[in-house]
Each structure stands twice: as C-alpha cells, then as structure tokens.
Amino acid sequence: MRAGGGSVRVVAAALSAAAVTWGVRRAADRLVDPEDARWARVNHRGARLSLLEGPAVAAGLVAAAVVGAPDRRTAAACGLAAAGAAAFGLVDDLTEDTSRSRKGLRGHLGALVHGELTTGGLKVVGIGATSLVAAAVLPDRDDLGPVARAVDVAVSGALVAATANLLNLLDLRPGRALKAGALAGAPLLGGAAAPVAGAVLGSAAAALPRDLGETDMLGDGGANALGALLGVGAVVGNGRAGRLALLTAAVGLTLASERVSFTEVIARTPVLREIDAWGRR
Fold it and tell me: How does pLDDT run across 76-108, given as a tens digit for each residue?
C-alpha cells in the first residue's frame, strides 16, 4: 500500500478490525446454538472450544481492508484474499468427513491425484485460486510486460496461499496462531503494508483473550484468513526478490511440517517456548 494516509489508515484499520471482530463474535453467540457440534472442537487438554472465532476474525479483517486500503484495487485484493481463505477454510471446518480425513498438504494433494476431492483438497485449490486472483487485482507497481507480469502474479499468489496455509499449521495451541500473526505483521508497520499490519494486530488483539482462555480457536477459517491477509501484506511490502525469498521460506517450512512437529521445536527452543506460553492458562 502507498504511504499516503499514513498513521490514520493504520489506526482506522486496527480499530475497525478489532471492533468488527468483537462485535461479530458476540453476535454469533446469539445466532448459533451452543450445542451445535459442527462449531465445537476439543483441544489437546480436553477443553471444548468454539470455532466461531474464525468467522469473527475474518469479518474484522475484511472490514479493515475496506477501511484501511489506500485504493480500490488494494482493498479488493485484501478483501478477496481474506474472504476467500475464510470461506474455503470454513467449508473444511464444518463439512470435513473425519472418517476419511487426510492429514497435511501431502495427504490432500495425494487424494486429489487419485481422483478424491477432500474438503482439505477443495480448500487447497480454492485458496490457491482466490490468492492468484487477489495478486492479479493488486496494482502493478513495476509496469511489467505481459509475461513478467504473469510470473509476478504467480509468485505473489503462491506467497499469499502459502502464508495462509502456514499460519493454519500453527493453530494447535491456545493463542499460538494469533501471536504468530501479530509478530509477522508488526514489521510491516514501517512500510507500504502498514494498514495490513494494523488490521492483523487489531483483529488478533480482539480475539486473543478468548483464544488464550481456551474457549475459542481460529480453526481453518480464521487462521487461513489471517495468513492470507499477511501474505497480501508481504506482497505489498516487498519487491520481487523479497517476495520470492519469502515464498521459498514459506514453502520450506510447509514441507518441513510434514516431517517435523512445530510444537516439539517450540518446546525445545527457550525463546519460542516462552512466547508460546505467554498468557496461556
């Protein structure tokens, strides 16, 4: 995003994200039957959690995209990336057939290769498609030719999708994905993507108390939306070389997650362990 609007856009994005996240989450309590098992999960400690946090966070992010973006194309790209990731994530959250579930990106892609479309596979394809469209909608800052522009959009779209998936991989402990999103978004405050950072920080701040309190969790819908918007921020805030480097890192971490437990790595690393445990019961 352009620097125009400065801190006003950042504050507006943060406040709107927090207000909408808070408001939608409380409205959801009145609209959704608390006994509806589709919206409930049990965490690693046996606590019953609600997935209603996910749609609330996604709504806050989309609202902030409209309020904080400096132009219509950037607003559309941010809104599309967050809303698309949330929608396909929610499909996976609410309709996954647990008796035939496939674990990890490899499992879902393997099922697709063999002609089986799982809800996770649909999510991979759907978020990939909306991420590419969002990248194409963003303004062309470098006035590239058709071929170079196509490559640029492909790299940017892949970065948005990879970031969405990566943040979802962290939604395994209370507050972890929200903290990771906030830490990843904070460096963007000093650049062109500052309003994106404001949106992420505002929504995370509103959702964090219930997440840490083990009453809510992001689920695929919320985590994918948060990660997708961070991906758009990474695209906006970095040049072509930076975007390619970030994509390489995101893909590398995703592939590593197929063999290495992030939870075990965090537990063995003192600084990460302390950050991860902060505020948790």
Answer: 999 999 999 999 999 999 987 655 555 655 555
- Contacts for 225 with CB less than 8 Å, ≥ 6 apart: 54, 57, 58, 61, 82, 83, 85, 86, 89, 164
What is the tens place of the pLDDT at every residue in 174-225?
999 999 999 999 999 988 999 999 999 999 999 999 999 999 999 999 999 9
Contact between 164 and 231 (Cβ < 8 Å): yes
CA–CA dist 99, 230 (Å, integer): 33
Distance from first CA to last CA of the chain, Å, rounded? 38
CA dihedral for 95, 98, 100, 101, sign (positive or negative): positive
The whole-model pTM stands at 0.90
